[in-house]
Amino acid sequence: MKGTHTIKVLVATPDGQSLLDKEVTEPDSLWEISSDLDHGQERCTPLIMGGFRELDPQAKIPLSPTLKLNSDLTDLSQRVLLNIAKAELHRTACQNFKTYTVEAEREVAVISKEGEALEGFLHTWGGVLDLTPILLKKCHPDFICAREITVEYGPDGCHISLLAPSPVDMKRCTRCGACSWVCPEDCILPGPFFDLERCTLCGRCKDACSQNAI
């Protein structure tokens, strides 16, 4: 079954480098893009484009998963995406000069405020990438939930710190223990503290709370 989608392509023009939107047809897809492209009245040479080598092994120019994910899943401006594409081109060029290969395991953190968006992304890319879905400011039994998130960059990659949301309004909680008695997963500890990784969001603790603290 054929379909079309749009990808970002960084091209070389007489005036420098530009980022173009190019429609491709599945299943032919990216391997067709190997020659000059039209840019207004000029011809330009493709340098790098958004995509995954695992899905398009026949592509004849470098593919960037970073450019693909940022162009498809964010609202970043064309200027920011152009800078990302240039950085990816530089990274790829540096890799091409190496005389050895380093196999690195990389985990991709997918962050969203919408559970449906995370589910859709996992359905599409879960078999290709090692994904860790993170849901912001909401709760879902299948995802890591966070109230705040901090990203730090280091020589070995990005480190993400999470502040987990608390389902309890401590100003209302009387620590009566009713919530922990009815929890079928035993994920409520004295305090109360919730083990959100075990919680299935069944709602029994909420129904048992007489103070509406959950």
Describe what this molecule looks like in 3D.
This protein has 214 residues and is of the alpha/beta class. The protein folds into three domains: 3-96, no CATH class; 108-163, no CATH class; 167-214, Alpha-Beta Plaits. The chain is 23% helix and 32% strand. It has five helices and twelve strands. The chain has helices spanning 65-73, 78-96, 115-125, 178-182, 204-208, and strands at 3-13, 16-26, 37-39, 42-50, 63-64, 108-112, 131-136, 144-146, 148-154, 157-163, 188-189, 193-194. Strands 1, 2, 3, 4 and 5 form a five-stranded mixed sheet that branches. A three-stranded parallel sheet has the order 6-7-8, covered by helices on one side. Helix 1 (65-73) runs antiparallel to helix 2 (78-96). It is elongated, with a radius of gyration of 23 Å. Mean pLDDT is 75; it is low at 96-104.
Write the layout of secondary structure elements.
Elements: E1 3-13, E2 16-26, E3 37-39, E4 42-50, E5 63-64, H1 65-73, H2 78-96, E6 108-112, H3 115-125, E7 131-136, E8 144-146, E9 148-154, E10 157-163, H4 178-182, E11 188-189, E12 193-194, H5 204-208
Parallel strand pairs: 4-5, 6-7, 7-8
Antiparallel strand pairs: 1-2, 1-4, 3-4, 9-10, 11-12
Protein name: 4Fe-4S ferredoxin-type domain-containing protein
Organism: Dissulfuribacter thermophilus
GO molecular function: iron-sulfur cluster binding; metal ion binding
